[in-house]
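[Meeting: bench + compute handoff]

Bench side (C.D.) handed over the final construct sequence. Compute side (W.E.) agreed to return the predicted structure before the next meeting so the bench team could plan truncations. Sequence as handed over:
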Amino acid sequence: MKYDFLIVGAGFAGAVCAERLAASGKRVLVVDKRNHIGGNAYDRHDENGVLIHPYGPHIFHTNSKRIFEYLSAFTDWRFYEHRVKAYVDGGLYPIPINRTTINRLYGLDLNEQATVAFLESVREARGTVSTSEDAVLSSVGRDLCEKFFRGYTRKQWGLDLSELSAGVAARIPTRSNDDDRYFTDTYQFMPAQGYTAMFERMLGSPDIEVRLSTDYNEVKASIECGHLVYTGRIDAYFGYRFGKLPYRSLDFQHQHLSDVERFQTTGTVNYPNDHEYTRITEFKHLTGQQHQGTSIVREYPRAEGEPYYPIPRKENEALFLRYNALAETVADITFVGRLAQYRYYNMDQVVGASLKAAEGLIQGAAISEC
């Protein structure tokens, strides 16, 4: 059978493109080497009946009304504001750092204005903010940097703050009030029936065929299609011609506690200085599921394994740009998604990039048919 589009990957990027293209009347084939849809956002019930995220917590948040309304066509939502605490010096403190964090950590009683003054007094001015160390020190000073950021970064990235681009640390704000939400986006929700159910609806069109446990490289010669949408590693597509783009991986160690209804007070607890793992997430906070037991996951960063996080360094971006330039010379292929664009995208950013890519493909198809 001939397809208008072949899409490699059934995660957010692939599913959004497939849904939009099928809605425009195109015949689409989606292949994925894993045995499930949803990519890293895939969720399932464990053997004890608790809904878990096998690839670590995925919390949806966005400021884009358009993206939220688009996904709302495929899921009902559960309102959820994620909260994170950091285990530091034997205590649990809100992260991002806020007024509560500072008052409890230092035994102070600062109001909001005094908290602003405190942060101003401990900041280390940087003429140029080029690294994550520059960003953190110029924001919260050295003591808070050492307590909350340096150790976590070293574990997560295998690099010191001084070796990472400033944008990594810029993702986490500092607050002078008591707002302890991890995100402040307008729309903060979780799919009420889970991510997998949402993906099933996105890929449910009769004009979409999905083949799982299918390696694109093993079947590409036998599939006839008009255009390829590739959401995998851009360096892998080109046979690592210029070398591999660096990634950090994770080892997820899941555990079920049958006699514990709640393991921790927030969805996630970070461990910047203790243990080999970076954080523990308890899924029932995220999903709102009622269950007599609970399931948690510990995340251990690794240098090798599945590619989860592009490592934001100048030399890595330069290598990606070489691959991107090569991609622009190849006809009838669109590269989209975190792996294909070597970007530390949030889920809503992947959806936005994929909607844009699909719209361009649909418009191009319409022009070619005129």
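W.E. noted at the follow-up: The first helix runs from residue 12 to 23. C.D. will use this when planning the next construct.
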